[in-house]
Structures are given as structure tokens and as C-alpha cells.
Amino acid sequence: MEGLKTSSNRTVLLTGAAKRLGKAIALHFAKAGWNVVLHYGNSKQDAIDTLEQIKALGVRAIAIQANLAQPDAIKTLFQASVDEFGRVDCLINSASVFEYDRPSQKAHMVTQSGLVRNIQVNLAAPVLLAQEMFHHLQKQLARNDGLVPVTIQLLDQKLINLNPDYFSYTLSKSALLTATEMMALDFAPTLRSVGLAPGITLPSGKQTEVEFLQAHQMTPMGYSSSTDDIAQAALFIANAKAITGTTIYVDGGQHLIPSRRDVMFNTQEG
């Protein structure tokens, strides 16, 4: 089948893969011949639909529901992946809590529960999954095909272009950026750790299609990232064994333009 360009014994575990960006990445890896573990939270029907599309490409795939705020569920998710495929070669942490808050706005103030929710899913879950992966790999024979396993954290271009919108989300992703570098040091040479930072890629929240298209053009290149751009970058990272401890920004240069607000609000403020 056209598109099966790598051996079928490579497996990717992708969190938040039922729809949107996670789905696009999962399909891209499947087209390259990877086995796919599709994690989902509450989007069961979307996961079923995506799973069918992946299997139609001729690769093996399973869908696993897990609440990433629960440590036991994280362990179960990883173990179920290993039980099915024997190992995990690429872990992509795409699942994310993305809720608006900002300390200065009384209607959207930061709360302890909101902070905890963001930290559990956006920070703790990726670190705990990577930790599970490392210790499993320690018990495995090294691959003989040149592939060095990797954990890829989906970050955000705003981490080097900070603004206080989506405060708890940004804080958790900033911590994950630091964790990405720390894990690269701690897990080498067994497991690589890489950040992948998209720009505005899909409409979010109450953003209209017109507002999204305007915001998408507010970069030096005149366009930001597409889901295909991010999926292609993720597969490149998975195969590029010398990349670790760094973050790749795929955003049309959006991170180079300072902004006091999140880009989705810039078009609303005119």
C-alpha cells in the first residue's frame, strides 16, 4: 500500500488523538506505516471514527480511554499500549486543557482548581508517561534500525512570546518546556525528549472562522501552521535521532512578533 514507508513494528502512542490536531498527527503516522495507540478522554465517537480511518490505511491501531488527571489511568494507558504492541517508540503528548483565565480579570480569575487541572493534564501526565516509557525501554533491547525512541511534547509558540491570556494553560506549558530539556538530560541515551510548538493552527473557543483566518495571517510568512505542518514536523522528529532537548517552532514565525494579547484576541480588538 502506498504510504507504508517504515516497518510496521514502530508504534506511536498519541494522547488526545480523537480529533483536531491529535487526529491529524495520528493519521500522518499511520500513513507512514506506524502502529497507532489512540488515546482519548471524553470523545468516544470521534475516537471510534478516527480509529476506523487509521485501520483503513492498513496499519494496526487501538483506541484507549483514560483520564489523564489520574496517575493510575496513566500507568494503565501505557501498559495497555505495551501489551498490544510490545513497545512504544514515540510518545506524543497532544492532549491539553485549554481554558481561559487571567488574574487581572474578575470574570476569569485564576483558581486553584483550574491551576491543578492544567498541571495534571498539561504537565504531570506528559512527564509521568515519559517516565513510564523510559523505564520500560530500559528493559528492552535497543532497536537495530537506527530509530531512537522519543517523547514529543506539544507546546505553544507563545512560550517565547509571553502574554497573560490563558494564564494557567501558559504556566503549565512553560513548566513542560523546562521539563522537556530536563528529561532529555535524564533519559539520554535511551529516550529523546523534544518540544514541538505550533502557532495558531485551528479555531479555538468562540473564535469565528473569519477571525481565525485573520489571525492565521498575522505572521512574518503571512500564514501560521496547519495540522499537516505539525504532523510532518512530528514525524520528522520521530525519525531524526540527533534531535533532543530542544523545541521546534512551527508557526510561520509567529513567535517573532511581540503581542500583549493571545493572537486570537488581536483580530477582535482591531
The largest sheet has its strands arranged as: 3-2-1-4-5-6-7
Given as residue ranges, the uncertain stretches (5+ residues, pLDDT < 50) are 1-7
> What general form does the structure show?
globular
E-strand count: 7
Largest sheet report: 7 strands, parallel
Kindly name the structural category: alpha/beta
Backbone CA Rg: 18 Å
> What do we call the CATH homologous superfamily?
NAD(P)-binding Rossmann-like Domain
Task: Give the structure's gist in a few sentences.
The chain is of the alpha/beta class and 270 residues long.
How do the helices and strands line up, and which of them pair or pack?
Layout: E1 11-15, H1 20-31, E2 35-40, H2 44-55, E3 61-65, H3 71-85, E4 90-93, H4 112-137, E5 150-154, H5 167-187, E6 192-198, H6 209-216, H7 227-239, E7 247-250, H8 263-269
Parallel strand pairs: 1-2, 1-4, 2-3, 4-5, 5-6, 6-7
What does this 3D model show about the protein?
It is a single chain. The protein has 270 residues and is α/β, with parallel strands linked by helices. The protein has a single domain, classed as 3-Layer(aba) Sandwich (Rossmann fold), CATH 3.40.50.720. It has eight helices and seven strands; from the N terminus they run E-H-E-H-E-H-E-H-E-H-E-H-H-E-H. It has a seven-stranded parallel β-sheet with strand order 3-2-1-4-5-6-7, sandwiched between helices. Helix 1 runs parallel beside helix 2. The longest helix has 26 residues. The protein is globular and about 50 Å long. The N and C termini lie far apart (49 Å).
